[in-house]
Amino acid sequence: GIIISPARVRSRAHIIAIRCARCSDTTTIQALGGPFASVPLPTRCQGPNPQECGPVPYGVLSDECTFIDQQTLKLQESPESVPTGEMPRSILLAAERGLVDTAPPGTRVNILAVANLFNAASSSKAASVRTLYLRVLGMTRETTSADNTSFTPQEEEAFRLLARRPDIYNILTRSIAPSISGSYTIDIKKALTCLLFSGSRKRLPDGMRLRGDINVLLLGDPSTAKSQFLKFTTRVAPIAVYTSGKGSSAAGLTASVIRDAKGEFYLEGGAMVLADGGVVCIDEFDKMRPADRVAIHEAMEQQTISIAKAGITTVLNSRCSVLAAANPVFGRYDDLKSASENIDLMSTILSRFDLIFLVRDIRDEQRDRSICLHVMGVHIDNYKPGGATAGSGLVAASNALQPFNSGDDALLGGTGAAGSNSDSLTDTNSSASAIAENAMRIATTGVGELNVSTMKKYIQYCRAKCSPRLTEEAGDVLTSSYVKIRDDVRRRTLDSDGGEGSHSVIPITVRQLEALVRLSESLAKMRLDSDVQTQDVAEALRLFKVSTMAANQAERSTTSSSSNNSNPSSQSIMSAAIPSRDDMMRSESFLRSRLVVGMVVNRQKIIEEAAGQGYNAMVIARALAVMVMRGEVQERNQSRLIKRVQ
Predict the structure, then answer these.
(1) Separation of alpha carbons 370 and 251, rounded Å
(2) Which of 367, 451, 461, 369 minimizes the C-alpha distance to 151?
(3) Which residue, among 183, 635, 198, 106, has the nearest Cα to 411 in the 3D structure?
(4) What is the pLDDT of residue 415?
(5) Crossing angle, helix 168-175 and helix 153-163, to 10 degrees?
(6) How high is the pLDDT of residue 145?
(7) Considering only 348-362, 379-393, 563-577, which range has the smallest mean pLDDT?
(8) What is the pLDDT of residue 44?
(9) Does the pTM exceed 0.90?
(10) What's the whole-number mean pLDDT along residues 27-44?
(11) For the residues 38-61, what does the mean pLDDT come to?
């Protein structure tokens, strides 16, 4: 299981020295009742004259007692082993002597213990109620997710044969959520494959650690299968925790300090601590409060969580990948607004994601028709036992899209009828022989997909057996490509705005260079190759360009399309790039007359109101920026609200 909350170390008397208050008779009592049992003192003196000493004459000599360390811990079953819809079970542990302070929160342990009971109620009415606890005799820590995983010779032979296939990357990609289909999902599946295998963790000579886990953000319109990708990743990852942004707080994601019934504080790990060595899937990432999103900054980059609360100062490990799904500001992507207005996330959190996919629901007649034919075929097939023939032609006409459940929130996919059948087969055929047989069949024929159990076991095998490193040739290609990407972004900024005043919504920094290294290492790990090849770097660059760079260029394309619009107002916008002094003074006068001191208004509404009265929107926005620099106006809520202060 996994340790979620260790208590403070206490001292328990093991051998108690007592002395009679009348005759000074000294003796010792050994505490044999267990860690939670009390030790009764003799009611009569055991000296030469017990009648003269009276009842209960003994007192405890604290300085002469022998004490041992004792600590209580809370052990919870692993999150990946908890069935959906059930609460994880937990049990109390009692560790003594050298076993104390060996398992911080989030540590996965194997224990050897003896079950016992103790009375947890203080009142006599509940004396018959007993609480189960485990008295720990031995404890071993698991450093990786594969520590408790053993591989049979048949599995190792099948996995090595599978890794030698030149199309192993495509096999793994089509095994990711096979019931979700569509042209836009191909690159997302490849990114999720890289996330599951991850890069290589590194520890520098000065003690600094470089993360190998890959973070991916899916940002786009509703009904594009984002949540289904998260659910499938939770099932196929060796260690995974699923949570929703609206129902998650900063303490629930990182760690919290809780006061027990005795008034003492203890530490309890959150979702990112429990998923140490695995994947954290955060749905509705945009619905989280900004303060809660800031709390995971350290966990996403340094992969540690620092706690300094209630006298507890410690650092917990959170070596996990983050897979997040979010919607744009207005619920769906608005083509009339820039990318920075659609993406309501700070640059500090966006730069920590290695890949950012902008998923769009494009309205196209041919695409919509194929989706309708596909959905109708699924509904018709569901009424036919054993697969109907009436819907087969419809499904074939929709480019062989695989069926999905009608209740799923996905545009082109879900956990479909075919997917549910394969899932039931996966549950029944999760034995070592079935996994080896499935892997061997795919390795020899190259046809079909790996089931969930085989995929999970292969991921564990690759992460345990292989740790690729970058070669000099691949490093040179990566260096030149990164410099060219940075130069292209700088040139695009200069061409669009004529200066350095505007920055892209997703910054391209050294973090993105490290992301390319991690992607290249994950691609080599799929083949069990110890060296990163140039084709791995090329594929990593392609994934980066179709995801993060494509989302970064969305703002530029929107701006260029609006500048080419035949609307005459666009000409005035372009001419207002450098407004005259008279225009600025008129705009500032309008803003001062419209904004009363102490008034808080929406920035976009005031610009639209000024545009309705004949003012140029670009000049009004520039005048607002000048007034902010002077201190006349303050920006609030990420510049969405403005307040007149003087």
Answers:
(1) 45
(2) 461
(3) 183
(4) 36
(5) 110
(6) 52
(7) 563-577
(8) 81
(9) no
(10) 81
(11) 80
The first and second tokens of residue 256, run together, are 């919290």
Strands (E), 44-107: 58-60, 66-76, 90-96
Which of 396, 357, 362 is CA-nearest to residue 380?
A: 396
Are 250 and 232 contacting, i.e. CB atoms less than 8 angstroms apart? no
Q: Which of 24, 28, 22 is nearest to 54 (CA)?
A: 22
Identity of the residue numbered 30: Q
Between 142 and 435, the more confident residue is 435
Neighbours of 79 (CB within 10 A): 17
Is the per-residue pLDDT at 267 higher than 50? yes
Tokens of 397: 């006409």
pLDDT tens for residues 614-635?
888 888 888 888 888 788 888 8
Q: Is 344 exposed, middle or buried (0-12, 13-18, 19+ CB in 10 A)?
A: middle
Helix (H) or strand (E) holding 313: strand 312-317
Q: Position 143: which residue type?
A: T
Which conformational region is residue 619 in: left (phi greater than 0), alpha (psi within -120 to 50 degrees), or beta? alpha
What does pLDDT average to over the chain?
77
Q: Cβ contacts of residue 626 below 8 Å, gap of 6+?
A: 584, 588
Q: Which two tokens stand for residue 346?
A: 């700070």
How buried is residue 75: exposed, middle or buried, by Cβ count under 10 Å (0-12/13-18/19+)? buried
To the nearest 10°, the Cα dihedral for 455, 458, 459, 462? Answer: -160
Give the span between the Cα atoms of 551 and 337, in whole angstroms.
14
Tokens 């096979």 locate to 178
* 8 Å CB contact between 178 and 193: no
* pLDDT(12) > 60: yes
Tokens of 572: 């005035």
